[in-house]
Amino acid sequence: MLRLLSLLPLSLLHALGTLAGWITWAASPTYRRRFKDNVRSAGVAWPQARGAIAEAGKMIAELPWLWMRPADEKLGERLHWDGRELLDAAVAQGKGVLLLTPHLGCFEVCAQAYAEVHGASTPITVLFRPARKAWMRELVDNSRNRPGLEAAPATLAGVRQMIRALRKGQAVGLLPDQVPPDGLGVWVPFFGQSAYTMTLAGRLVQQTGAALLLIWGERLPGGRGYVVHLRPAPVIPPEAKPEAAARLVNEAMEELIRLAPGQYLWGYHRYKQPRGLDIAVAPSEAGK
User: Fold this and answer.
1) What residues are paired with 216 via a beta bridge?
2) Helices (DSSP H) in 180-241: which residue ranges?
3) How far is CA 114 from the centre of its chain?
4) pTM of the model
5) Which side of the chain, N or C, has fewer Cβ within a 10 Å radius?
6) To which H or E segment does residue 217 belong?
7) What residues form DSSP beta bridges with 214?
8) 211-257 per-position pLDDT tens digit
9) Torsion of CA 262, 265, 266, 270, to 10 degrees
10) At what angle do helices 84-93 and 107-118 cross, to 10 degrees?
11) How many CB atoms lie within 10 A of CB 225?
12) How many CA atoms lie within 13 A of 68 on its CB side?
């Protein structure tokens, strides 16, 4: 089914995704409540965020096209750049590049766009969570890999793989607003609420000296394609503690999200407790 869907025009997939997004919104009170609560706590006006209902559906519907189109089929005219000179300069330094993006727009396209322009000489490794269903795991893992682009699982082995890539002067992509497993994060504010936040981004920069950039993929209306935006990232001092580095990363993610709140995944359970964490200590840990 996924392979058949991948043959459809992107415009049709996005239209189907819009329908799916609104059906999900109508069918799930829990999803609606979390969506609205996250928007409200972020201080975003509802008219600015409302479009994210359809965008969440588009995110799912476009995956067959992104994952399963032929490896030699480029993004071509569907890809546009904003700030590519920042990326080119960072790659030219040869010290590795760490690209951070929140769940904003089409984050899958960011890695593919990078691979098309720099993957031949400087590949990119992206961190992902393996599918829970065994029958989906191999399909998803293989689909994400493309020329110049390799996916690494969100495990200790995957983290080591990312460190090796950066030390070779290659690129790494990361979604730092994902809730990490217990023990791999700290409690710091995100849009005014305490959120368990990964420390991996700061540690990768401090351990490797890699260049740090912010990136996000804007989804254009009508299935016309994507604009990949690059922005300078905050400086993470080598001596910064994990909490301080995580705060800087969260603040940078907030700035990106405010640029296009209508494409953020507001329904994501950002403030959940990681498995194994003693909930009673969460508030005090957040204030440290």
Assistant:
1) 229
2) 200-208
3) 14
4) 0.90
5) N
6) strand 211-219
7) 100, 231
8) 999 999 999 999 999 999 999 999 999 999 999 999 999 999 999 99
9) -150
10) 60
11) 19
12) 17
pLDDT digits (tens, 9 = 90+) for 109-156: 999 999 999 999 999 999 887 667 776 767 766 677 788 999 888 788
Return the H-helix or E-strand segment holding 232.
strand 226-232
| Cα–Cα dist 43/248, whole Å | 19
| Residue carrying the six token digits 């189907």 | 16
Gap between the Cα atoms of 180 and 144, Å rounded = 21
- Across the beta sheet with 171-174, what order do the strands follow? 79-82, 226-232, 211-219, 97-100, 171-174, 124-128, 149-153
Residue type, 78: R
Which pair of structure tokens corresponds to residue 149? 């682009």
Q: How far apart are CA 49 and CA 178, in angstroms?
A: 20
Take residue 62 and report the two structure tokens written for it.
Answer: 């476009």
Closest by CA to 183, choosing from 126, 248, 242, is: 242
Predicted pLDDT at 54: 98
